[in-house]
Design a protein that fits this description.
The chain has 928 residues and is α+β, with helices and mostly antiparallel strands. It contains 26 helices and 28 strands. It has a seven-stranded mixed β-sheet with strand order 17-2-1-18-19-23-20, sandwiched between helices. Strands 5, 6, 12, 13 and 16 form a five-stranded antiparallel β-sheet that branches. Strand 1, helix 5 and strand 2 form a beta-alpha-beta unit. About 3% of the residues have low confidence. InterPro entries: DUF1156, SAM-dependent_MTases_sf.
């Protein structure tokens, strides 16, 4: 039963944000065993982030239990204990650690009792949120409009628990492995592995002859070698009437840029005037024949405009020529000139069962249609289509073989399939087939004519190296039967390892297709979701690339899910003008009304005692809308906040979750915003009273100052302060029935955000009142001139206003006054550590200098020379200086202050250890 006054959850008060973000960033480099390697999905939510958000949304904050934790100190101690659990929980290696998960689940039960809720993600996408809910012991519901996303979620949360703990059914493992207990998904993984190899062997029997070996020249070891990739160049006929030679459209002639192993191709025309290529060691001396401006004929040098190339392509006159063959030699990659044998092996007709569906006409991120590629099959060479249709056809054969073997192993065969909830041999065979269909999709991602060749690391570049399908002039065709990148073996082995990253347990999740605006009949449920970003590329258009192959493989397994020729698009909730007759306004209205409907639906679903969490994909470009310095106002951000508030939610917290690698806090000269902001929401009472603008500002000031102090005390990075401060600010705004302007009109979200920013600046500036007088002067001078020189008269007026003497500042090595100018001394000009650094400005700048030059060890040595209070005052000043630098657009300056704060826990820890050591040494010396 929901309580009238719900307890505050940990996520509404405090989080160990640094550790969560560190785990999130590290997860990007995890490839082996990560569930994302099951199947590509764009902009997946990191598992560590999803796990932390779900857990901290269920666990009570200690302040909710004053009877157990009556003092602030007791609450802080208990909160730190919970943080320790959360810190362990987000570590990748602990994903399925029994002790860590049991400790986490115990805290959930302690807060929720026996009433642990189920979780719904209505925009499930790649499935991170439902998967992590299941890992934490919750029943998970994954909903998505996209059939590809639904299938991915079924493979993660629905299929594995259904066959939990079953032994392998294939004859190899039944015969060769004497295993008494098959834990978790090991039996299912072993069967997927077996039938995948079974499928590869039969594919080789059918089409292996299409992938001949290549003879290596003597200088590269000689003998026959397995081909890794064929490198092709698209071609057109030169428009020069006096030339009319076939010319290659190549960006770069380099095949390998690895040091000491450089190789390149060179074009030439044989005696018959036909285009051909040679392969030579060393770097290319000539530039490629195509760039952003157009192309150049390799024979006569005539410029070739893109308009001509597009026209030729649309009329079917664009061709391709084999430029080079890459093979696996005895000493690494070998590069061989094309031959008639290799070229003829690829000269095939398009298979009759290749997908006939059309590409979208105006979708964002698609560039190939203007070059005559109108169908999905046009993105592949005939040999690639032959391989993909062969493998996708064999999925059904593998399903049937798995069913027969499962029945022979004693599994009942009731004929009920996966889609109908079956658990017998028929369903099991279909389950194996789902994962085999995934590897076909992975082969498609690494086996199209959009794949490029990465010459620096001599590897294939996949189709979706970014969220688009661009035109690729010279492309790489992988060999599915080799063992290198893009091969069946490479992709399949990686996929098999992903089973180890799935949740273990028999709590079966449910994944279903559905429109988030429609009522899915969920009630009294926990909701956490990552809705579409305002005007992002439509995943529905991109996912058709995979859908056309999944449909061939799994249409009989999930007939309803794959009943349409392509993915549903009309209901996809993004603001894309091309779906609204080119009208940006209509697209905006569609997104706004749709997001409001979704938020209202979520309010119907959500429990009263657990906050709703909504991810917002905050992008750097968002800061370019409106005021150039306003990092919180954009159309998408404003729309999301407005929809949440208008739907009846109060926002009680905002947490920036980062997935950038360490060291990229600031890039390209601007502050990099969080990868996502997690909005924490509670249902607002129906009878919430309105507020006047004056009362809103008064409450905002009262709430923001202590909230900022708490955030600083938790060592929040300065770069994240603006986003986190939105939480307590919007909590005041969204808790009111409305905020009324002086003329009686309702205040909008953008106006509220502007006021929150103003008050945040005021809070950070007010914090300077505790700073010593010379430091306050330096901060003022820094804010107006940085480290540049200013007119003496202007600075003298400021000094008098701040009641400081300029000469004393010169004597203290804080400023230089000469030739009618005054400037702050740069960090490299500051006194050495032995000189007095007893004011906040000097100490803060010296700490920044020592961190930059000597790292944490050097910085902690300086911090140890001051008292802990003095060092903390210098750290607090770094927040204000970061804010000043950020507002001025001084990115490199802002980064230095941000780095000082984020490194402070290690600096302070080492400084305290030094103090204790020095104190012990002094006592020993005195005692002696």
């Amino acid at each position: 039963m929901a309580e009238s006054t719900p307890k505050k959850k940990l996520i509404e008060v405090a989080l160990p944000l640094d550790e969560i973000n560190a785990a999130t960033a590290r997860e990007k480099s995890i490839r082996h065993g990560h569930p994302s390697t099951l199947h590509l999905w764009w902009a997946r939510r990191p598992l560590a982030c999803a796990r932390a958000v779900i857990w901290s949304s269920l666990v009570d904050d200690p302040s909710s239990h004053p009877e157990e934790f009556p003092t602030a100190e007791a609450q802080d101690a208990e909160r730190e204990r919970l943080f320790d659990i959360l810190r362990r929980l987000v570590v990748w290696e602990n994903s399925n650690d029994p002790k860590t998960l049991e400790d986490a689940k115990a805290e959930i039960r302690r807060s929720m009792g026996d009433d642990v809720p189920a979780l719904l993600d209505p925009f499930a996408g790649g499935g991170a949120i439902p998967l992590e809910a299941q890992r934490l012991g919750l029943k998970a519901y994954a909903q998505d409009l996209n059939p590809v996303a639904v299938t991915i979620n079924k493979a993660q949360i629905e299929i594995p628990p259904r066959f939990e703990g079953l032994p392998a059914m294939n004859p190899r493992d039944r015969k060769d492995r004497m295993v008494d207990v098959w834990e978790g998904h090991t039996g299912l993984a072993a069967d997927v592995d077996y039938y995948g190899q079974w499928m590869r062997e039969r594919a080789w029997e059918k089409i292996g002859h299409l992938y001949p070996k290549v003879e290596l020249p003597a200088e590269q070891g000689g003998g026959m070698a397995t081909v890794i990739a064929w490198l092709w160049a698209r071609t057109v006929t030169c428009p020069n009437p006096a030339c009319r030679h076939t010319t290659p459209l190549v960006r770069s002639w380099d095949l390998s840029k690895k040091k000491g192993k450089e190789w390149h191709a060179e074009p030439f025309y044989n005696e018959e005037g036909e285009l051909d290529f040679v392969v030579k060691p060393g770097k290319a001396t000539e530039k490629g024949m195509v760039d952003r401006k157009g192309a150049v004929c390799v024979h006569c040098g005539e410029p070739i405009k893109f308009d001509y190339i597009r026209q030729e392509a649309q009329e079917g006159h664009m061709g391709s020529s084999l430029m080079a063959v890459v093979a696996e030699g005895e000493h690494g990659r070998a590069y061989v000139a094309p031959s008639t044998v290799q070229a003829k092996a690829a000269d095939l007709p398009v298979p009759k069962d290749a997908p006939e569906s059309m590409l979208p006409e105006h979708a964002l991120g698609f560039r190939v249609q203007t070059y005559g590629m109108l169908k999905w099959q046009d993105l592949f060479t005939p040999r690639q289509l032959t391989a993909l249709t062969t493998f996708s056809g064999l999925v059904k054969d593998a399903q049937e073989q798995a069913r027969l073997d499962a029945a022979a192993s004693g599994m009942a065969d009731d004929g009920v399939g996966l889609a109908d909830g079956g658990t017998g041999a028929t369903a099991y065979g279909e389950a194996v087939g789902v994962y085999l269909a995934f590897v076909v999709d992975q082969m498609a991602n690494h086996g199209s004519s959009i794949c490029g060749w990465n010459s620096p690391n001599t590897q294939l570049r996949s189709t979706f190296s970014r969220q688009a399908i661009p035109m690729t002039w010279d492309y790489a065709e992988s060999n599915p039967f080799c063992s290198s990148s893009g091969s069946f073996e490479n992709l399949f082995s990686r996929m098999i390892k992903s089973f180890s990253g799935l949740a273990v347990g028999d709590i079966e999740g449910h994944a279903q297709q559905g429109d988030a605006c429609s009522d899915g009949s969920y009630r009294n449920i926990m909701v956490s979701t990552d809705p579409p970003y305002y005007d992002n590329i439509g995943y529905a258009d991109l996912s058709d690339y995979f859908y056309v192959w999944l449909r061939q493989s799994l249409k009989s397994t999930y007939p309803k899910l794959f009943s349409t020729m392509l993915v549903p698009k009309a209901e996809e909730l993004i603001a894309t003008p091309y779906r609204h007759d080119g009208s940006a306004q209509a697209a905006k209205e569609f997104f706004e009304s749709g997001m409001l409907d979704v938020c209202r639906r979520i309010r119907d679903y959500a429990r009263d005692d657990v906050p709703v969490t909504i991810y917002y994909a905050f992008k750097q470009s968002d800061s370019q809308v409106g005021d150039a310095k306003d990092t919180t106002a954009s159309t998408g951000w404003e729309t999301m906040l407005s929809a949440i508030i208008e739907a009846g939610f109060a926002i009680t917290g905002t947490w920036p979750m980062r997935s950038e690698k360490p060291g990229r806090t600031i890039s390209n000269g601007t502050n990099a915003l969080a990868s996502s902001i997690v909005l924490v929401c509670r249902k607002r009472p129906e009878n919430a009273a309105p507020l006047s603008r004056r009362d809103f500002v008064r409450r905002l000031r009262a709430n923001l100052a202590p909230a900022v102090r708490d955030l600083q005390a938790s060592n929040l990075a300065p770069v994240d302060m603006a986003q986190c401060a939105i939480g307590p600010g919007m909590a005041v705004f969204s808790a009111a029935g409305a905020v009324l302007e002086s003329d009686g009109s309702k205040m909008g979200v953008r106006s509220a955000l502007a006021l929150i920013n103003q008050e945040l600046d005021a809070v950070l500036n007010d914090a300077g009142d505790a700073t010593d007088t010379p430091s306050r002067f330096c901060v003022e001078l820094y804010g107006s001139h940085g480290f540049d020189a200013a007119p003496y008269g202007e600075v003298d007026v400021l000094a008098r206003a701040k009641n400081v003497e300029l000469q004393k500042l010169v004597d203290a090595h804080m400023v230089e006054a000469a030739r009618g100018k005054v400037r702050l001394l740069g960090r490299s000009e500051l006194p050495e550590r032995g000189v007095d650094l007893s004011n906040d400005w000097l100490l803060c700048q010296a700490l920044v200098r020592d961190l930059e030059q000597g790292g944490i060890e050097g910085c902690s040595a300086l911090a140890a020379q001051r008292t802990p209070v003095e060092a903390e005052d210098a750290r607090a000043l770094a927040y204000r200086l970061y804010n000043l630098a950020d507002r001025k657009g001084w990115a490199s300056e802002a980064l230095l202050y941000n780095n000082l704060v984020t490194a402070w826990p290690q600096i302070a820890g080492q400084a305290e250890a030094r103090r204790r050591y020095d104190e012990k040494t002094d006592q020993t010396t005195l005692g002696f």
